[in-house]
Structures are given as structure tokens and as C-alpha cells.
Design goal:
The chain crosses the membrane at residues 6-30. Keywords: Membrane, Transmembrane, Transmembrane helix. The protein is mainly alpha-helical and 55 residues long. It contains two helices and no strands.
């Protein structure tokens, strides 16, 4: 019984971590989208510096 409880706890922990990672990823993409929309000149200069890296 204890091992089953522990397994459920691990599963909940894993799901919570996945959820947090998804939220952080979504906010990060939104943040980069805002930067691209607000500062296209900065992005252009960055792309001139490093043309290999695709933003």
C-alpha cells in the first residue's frame, strides 16, 4: 500500500513539473514574440551579428 501511495505521489510530482515547464515555455515564447514585435531593429542587428542562428 505504501509503495502505491509513493508511486501516486511521484506521478503527481511529475505531472506538476510538466505543467510548470509547459507554462514557462508558453510564457517564454510569448515573451520572445513580444520582443520581436516591439524591437525589430534589435533583432535585425542581432541577426547581422550572428546570421547562422535563427531566432
Amino acid at each position: 500500500m505504501e509503495s502505491a501511495r509513493f508511486f501516486i505521489f511521484l506521478q503527481l510530482l511529475f505531472n506538476t513539473i510538466q505543467f510548470i515547464v509547459k507554462i514557462v515555455a508558453a510564457r517564454w515564447t510569448f515573451f520572445t514574440f513580444l520582443i520581436k514585435e516591439m524591437f525589430p531593429i534589435v533583432e535585425y542587428r542581432l541577426s547581422l551579428k550572428d546570421p547562422i542562428i535563427e531566432v
